[in-house]
Amino acid sequence: MRNKEWRLVPYHHKEVDVLFAELQQKIPKEFCNIYLHRGIHNLTDAKRFFNPSEDDLHDPFLMKDMQKALDRVLLAFHRKEKILVFGDYDVDGTTAVAIMIKFLRKVYQPQLVDFYIPHRYKEGYGISKQGIEFAAANDFSLIISVDCGIKSHQLVSLADNYGIDFIICDHHTPDATVPDAVAVLNPKQTDCYYPFKDLCGCGVAFKLISAYNKKNELSFEHLEEYLDLVTTAIAADIVSIVGENRVLASLGLQKVNKQPNFGIQALLQQRTDDKKVDIEKLVFTVAPRVNAAGRMDDARKAVELFIAPDVAAALLIANELHVDNEERKDTDQLITVEALEQLKQNEEFPQQKSTVVYAEHWHKGVVGIVASRLVDYYYKPTIVLTQSGNIIAGSARSVHGFNIHDAIEACREHLLGYGGHFFAAGLTMRPEQLTPFVEKFEQVVQGTIDADSLTPILWIDDFLTFEQIDTKFLTLLDRLEPFGPDNMRPIWRFQQVKIIQCRLVKEEHIRLELQQGKYRLTGIGFKLKHLYQSILENKEIDIAAAVTINCWNGKEYPQLLIYDIRPSQ
Length: 569
Fold this sequence. Notes:
Elements: E1 5-8, H1 13-22, H2 29-36, H3 43-50, H4 66-79, E2 82-87, H5 91-107, E3 113-116, H6 129-137, E4 140-146, H7 153-161, E5 165-169, E6 183-185, H8 201-215, H9 227-236, H10 243-258, H11 262-268, H12 279-296, H13 300-306, H14 311-344, E7 355-358, H15 367-378, E8 382-388, E9 391-397, H16 404-409, E10 417-420, E11 424-429, H17 434-448, E12 457-460, E13 462-463, H18 471-479, E14 492-505, E15 509-516, E16 519-525, H19 532-536, E17 540-552, E18 555-567
Parallel strand pairs: 1-12, 2-3, 2-4, 4-5, 5-6, 7-8, 13-14, 16-18
Antiparallel strand pairs: 8-9, 9-11, 10-11, 14-15, 14-17, 15-16, 17-18
């Protein structure tokens, strides 16, 4: 594991003083700097940030092609056409399919609506030829793709040859030109002036539903049933949780905790605590099991989970997903061990600035997870490849400040296809292109990556003591939720902390009983086993940790979520 570099978030003294005064000195100064780094510069910003409302959601018709998309849907209703919803096999894709299916079956004729999820191994990512042929063979004349389609130029043309129209709802980075569809909804298009660019795929699908809602002058209550699924997609796809995503996530979490979708409810029944459901609970409890369907088996059952008519039906599917997830965990751990051994045998690897590993027998469904684990180990832009039929396919994960999608695009002459985001991407190639691709990718990374991006940085918001963690502090911290990219859980530095007890939990986590002055706290460090020995060798340590609330047997108490530990100087 690479050692993290601790850096203190810049402290803007003048701006902090101004904000502190404007908030009438009711907020501790250490929080004012945190607010500034989340775009809160005045009282108006604070009110909007801390009181997210449906009134803060943007008009869906500001998105390019929204009127065209809605007109084509309404024409399909008028003509009584068959509509096929086509989505990706991950959480974002399956939740997007689920909300679109629930919406269409509610406002249209259910028997004229169906969905299609490509099989990860037989068809690959995104729109597939098999999917188009399924639509043609079953008399579908309109396909609405969600969380995919933005690069499917040829397949959209193929659908047109069959007399099938396309509406694309996507959020992945588009090419200079987009497919010739009836409508393309993607806020990342350069000529789309929608105010918020970081919607997930499910979020874009939600905006199409919102457009129907607005045109028909329906209340926001008609949209609320979809919000928990949109929030699950926001959490799982690791998109920015500011602006419109913060509003959607906040409203969605309210629904999760009051009246969740039956599928979410079924998956959450497997948790062991009674704490309110937050973004992290969706990320670590719901998302892995939903993703496991597409990784290990068939993602259709993830959609069936979210559109289940009752909890009993959802529980049956949730149990299947739990089994899939256990198999997934065993598989990705085995592949990670093999990948690490492969890198140890590579004498050139220490000098390289990228990580690329390949084995034709690796399970395609978990290579993205393995890539993330290798980034944790070596902190380099990473690609994990395997073979599916006569095609090599893989997933890429990046480090801070490095656009891995652009790096892969620079190697496109060696690829059959690629797509993704700044930090994550997928790609396919012919076997004979493997060696030239690996060489070109390393060249690109060598020539473009900043040295700073090859060091894992732990940004620390401020110094804190155990004594400062009182009821007011915890209340202010709670109001910052939901946490996620661009609004991460604040990390504090605690100095000269005494270790009362340290033990390993489940062989990879550490649990600490800590004391600073007369105050004691418990700390948990996930996957920090590599620090265990050094902790035992020091009487006092400095800790980089977030403050969380642990709930057990109906009681709440503060607990440290530890990210890193150093000996005190």
